[in-house]
Design a protein that fits this description.
The complex is a heterodimer of chains A (347) and B (564).
Chain A (H helix, E strand, L loop, with lengths): L1 H5 L2 H15 L6 E7 L3 H14 L3 E7 L2 H10 L8 E6 H9 L3 E2 L27 E13 H6 L20 E4 L5 H13 L2 H14 E5 L4 H7 L5 E5 H9 L4 E4 L7 E9 L5 H11 L2 H8 L4 E2 L15 H4 L5 H6 L1 H12 L6
Parallel strand pairs in A: 1-2, 1-3, 6-7, 6-8
Antiparallel strand pairs in A: 3-10, 4-10, 5-8, 5-9, 5-10, 5-11
Helix pairs in contact in A: 7-8
Chain B lengths: L1 H10 L1 H33 L12 H7 L2 H34 L5 H9 L7 H11 L17 H25 L3 H9 L4 H30 L2 H6 L6 H11 L3 H29 L16 H30 E3 L3 E4 L14 H31 L4 H12 L6 H12 L13 H11 L1 H13 L4 H8 L4 H12 L1 H17 L15 H10 L3 H32 L8
Antiparallel strand pairs in B: 1-2
The chains are: A alpha/beta (347), B mainly alpha (564).
GO cellular component, one term (chain B): plasma membrane
InterPro entries (chain B): AminoethylPonate_ABC_perm-1, MetI-like, MetI-like_sf
Family (chain B): Belongs to the binding-protein-dependent transport system permease family.
Amino acid sequence: MMPRRLFPSTLLASAAALASTVLASNALATELMVYTAVESDDLQKYAERFNAAHPDIEINWVRDSTGVITARLLAEKDNPQADVIWGLAATSLLVLEEEGMLERYAPEGVDNLDPKFVDAAYRDGEDPAWVGMDAWVAAICYNTIEGERQGVPMPTSWEDLTKPEFEGHVIMPNPNSSGTGYLDVASWLQLWDEEQGWDYMDRLHNNISRYTHSGSAPCSLAATGETVVGVSFAFRGARLKSQGAPIEVVFPEEGLGWDMEASAIVAGTDKQEAAQTLMDWSISREANELYNEGYAVVAYPAVAQPIENYPVDITDRMIDADFQWAAVNRERVLTEWQRRYDGKTEQ
Amino acid sequence: MMAESLIKAATKPSLESLIRLLVLLAGVALLVVGLLFPLVTMLLKSLQDRAGDFIGLANFAHYFQTPALVNSIANSLRVALMTTGVVVGLAFLCAYGITRTCMPGKRLFRMLAILPILAPSLLPAISLVYLFGNQGFLREVLAGQSIYGPIGIVMGMSFWIFPHALMLLTTALTNSDARLYEAAEALGTPKWRTFLTITLPGVRYGLISCLFVVFTLAITDFGVPKIIGGQFSVLATDVYRQVVGQQNFQMGAVVSVILLLPAVLSFIVDRWIQRRQVAQLSARAVPWQPTLSPLRDWVFALLCYAVAGAIVLVIGTAVYASLVQFWPYNLSITFEHYTFQGMADGGWGAWFNSLKLAFSVALVGTLVIFFNAWLIEKSEGFRPLRQGLHFMAMLPMAVPGMVLGLAYIFFFNQAGNPLNWLYGTMMLLVLNTLVHFYTVCHLTSVTALKQLDPEFEAVGASLKVPFWTTFYRVTLPVSLPAVLDISVYLFVNAMTTVSAVVFLYNSDTRLASVAVLHLDEAGYFASAAAMAVLIFLTSLVVKLLHAALTHVLLNNAQRWRQAT
């Protein structure tokens, strides 16, 4: 009699119900597997805005840092999992294009975009392999309270960061995993020549306390006072400052490295229609207004409004970045970087 | 119903035996598919190049020629040995306090000491940054040393491994023979000598076993070094960096094989000790009871409460960190971080996924593992099969989570594998977690089953009741406390584990523990703390429910245990 009371059939029934909820998947909408390196605090917003226009397409995000997503896409080359890439560095997309992993498609309204933000092949009459969204720009986050307390002055240039008083107070992202890290390295190598660029990084390395995986983390660490100076990007600095962090967002005088966030369809996807719908929307005016909420420079001309904590002349201060160079030399530069500096990378 | 099964059993005597064979084979198949095949695939991968061609030991040669990678071996050994020293030392003293003194507040101490088990190992690491980081309120304690590195790793690991060591040593110290101590006293043996010649030898097997368990947990842990390791690389974080950061799966496999070695070694030693420990305590032994000794009792009470205080401080810090608006510049309290702004699906989705995983593993895992243990212990025939199953059930303990997770990628993500569809699903996470924590549940089941009179099965068989009815009507209800222990163990571990599942989730099956890692990596420290606290509270609630349920059960349905 005891077992009957202890193992009522309701228990087994609820077990079965639980198992079935675990197994069940919702097959209501078309599901797109979208790989992205867009800042994670904005992802939900991106999906919501897109779904307001296209409720029948469900986005399944796979989000990680630029380097990780790029490595993952390359590793999955023979068996691609992603349908669309929405928000990955143009330098990475150029690498993927080189591997033949992108499907050429001219989204509706692509002519509205600033030509700089569209794959150059489009000018030669081909469909573009990728289209740009916005530019993200290097910046330094400087904690004013800790700077004063620890006697570290506010830097104004990249060169300042190599001065002795900054020793142990600088954190920057690892370019192997972080897109921001790579745009910094690529911009230094372009700003000066290669030899001088590596020489600069050698000297900077002496002052670095560690290299982080994400491009946001150095600024977050500066914001909480774990470090005085974080080499990061303008978006994160501006946002943290708005949230009340005691930081100044510094735009070094030598010039600002930048990269473009861009989108593309992954070759071989069996969800062409939904993928194209997403691409069409991703270059719309509405989408560019969305990008402008975080980024000062976007692909759609005249959409951009000034953003809090960004300098108004930011476009003039961005260097004349050569993405083609950055893409072609990506692997070589990253290998060299790793050989020289990887010992200070965080786990 | 009884008559019906009687008839069935009488008319088809071989059917029951056939079913028994089939369920045994199913049990074996589970561990072959969930453990052996993935591990073998991983070993093969470590001998292949990126294109999948066999290249012998070339990957290993490359590994040992790369100083940055080889350094991690020494680093891992160093922090694991330091952690083992700290944890076993403290746990021994505390266990001694519990079992061999009359210190006040033993129950409260044991409750507090168990808390770290309910938190993911990421939680202490996050707290330590708040306590000892550059802005930490206790940073002076470190005298200029950085918390990011070996110091932080050892502190964080010590926190969450301590309860494991305490439980093992408390059990070891409980079994004592008062007659030996009486004899020593009668002969006028000094206390320190009694300790060296009676107490220590009496617990030597438990102590050695504990040393190896702690060492294994420390060398395979991923969460603590990931968060607080700074530039200090260890084997477990190398696996993650190779696989996730660089997508270099072959090198990931190589590091995994190296990480497997110390774990397997300590597994073998532990097995060897277990075999020797049999019947150390004779049936005529008289349990030793401590007598009052105010000075000694208070010294141990102080020590134990210092440890408990540290545990509460670490957990309290995580809770505080999750509630502060903007550490350290705006200390007003807010629940904002529990909205998990830094996550695409709002974070609560990940928490719900973790709940689903934990409930599924607790339910399915408990039934499967206990039933398999019962087949091994209590059934007749198919001896080689039962022994094989028992052997395989012991193996998961020797396989670090990182290794198991990576092995799952290799095996289940192969294009030609008919089980490929499982990849990225919740079911695969359930299977992985079930296998990952199989051994402890298996041992608990076996211990519980060994306490039962084998006559139950014999009587069942002679009454021609099929074996599953005996199991369902007698064995399972009678072993209910152990079964509940297993299910809560599985639940808590599924909630808190990060090492294996970090390789296996996809966008639909993100887990809370993995979310802690990602939030911290991206710089959302307060949200990471909030998620870690959420996991801790969930485990705590389930643990309390379990305690209440066990209490009710023991008072009502299990009265026979206190018989006569």
